[in-house]
From TrEMBL:
Protein name: Regulator of competence-specific genes
Gene3D superfamilies, per database record: 5' to 3' exonuclease, C-terminal subdomain, YgaC/TfoX-N like chaperone
Domain TfoX N-terminal: 23-113
GO terms for biological process, alphabetical: establishment of competence for transformation
Matches recorded under Pfam families: TfoX_C (PF04994), TfoX_N (PF04993)
Domain of life: Bacteria
Coiled-coil positions: none
PANTHER family for this protein: PROTEIN SXY
Domain TfoX C-terminal residue range list: 127-204
Length: 209
């Protein structure tokens, strides 16, 4: 993984954290969730940013992405098996921290873009195959055990779905599929599923044989 120490980073001191929370509080009610080994910043049930290794990244989607790239912000890079994967989180440099008006603008842009993306997605019927880690093959397999909609998958849960697949399938489902189902329900790619959640799934998988 790349953090951006080399790009003139500004680590979040206690004072910085308090200042950031004040700016976020002007946008809406803030809550945090462990994600990707850091703190995911959520306002009005949309993810707007990430604090990782005491550095701030703002989520860039729709028009926020265009703006962040226009001012040449660097994207967060996750390395999986040596292969770099660019995520839609943009590093907030020291220069932006020094400009409170620009920092507030970036935060508001990340929030409004995330809300707009959520609203657009709600207008579209999402199929299971369109969720993270899923594909047509998994969608068909789930359909054979009576799970046809995303809502069904979320209501039943990854472990119960796994047991159904194990009971009715010709071949025992893998731990990779279990982790993929859990990630799909939570909205995570398997590669960035929180380590605590992943370990719980591995322990459970081993216990059910």
């Amino acid at each position: 993984m790349n953090t951006h120490k080399e790009f003139g980073s500004m680590s979040l001191t206690e004072k910085n954290y308090l200042h950031l929370e004040q700016l976020l509080g002007k946008v809406g009610e803030l809550r945090k969730k462990n994600y990707f080994g850091g703190d995911c910043l959520i306002i009005d049930n949309v993810i707007i940013g990430l604090i990782l290794d005491d550095l701030l990244y703002l989520r860039g989607c729709l028009f926020a992405r265009s703006y962040f790239e226009s001012i040449e912000l660097n994207r967060l890079v996750f390395r999986k098996k040596g292969i770099p994967l660019e995520l839609r989180y943009y590093f907030i440099s020291k220069q932006i921290w020094k400009n409170e008006e620009l920092l507030a603008h970036c935060i508001n842009l990340a929030y409004r873009s995330a809300v707009e993306e959520r609203n657009q997605k709600q207008l579209v019927v999402i199929r299971i195959k369109d969720l993270p880690n899923m594909n047509m093959s998994v969608e068909r397999a789930l359909g054979k055990i009576g799970i046809h909609k995303v809502e069904d998958l979320r209501e039943i849960g990854a472990k119960a779905c796994f047991l159904k697949l194990k009971q009715y399938g010709k071949h025992a489902p893998s731990i990779k599929l279990l982790i993929g189902l859990a990630g799909a329900i939570e909205g995570y790619h398997s590669a960035v599923l929180p380590s605590k959640m992943k370990q719980d799934l591995i322990n459970w998988y081993n216990s059910v044989g």
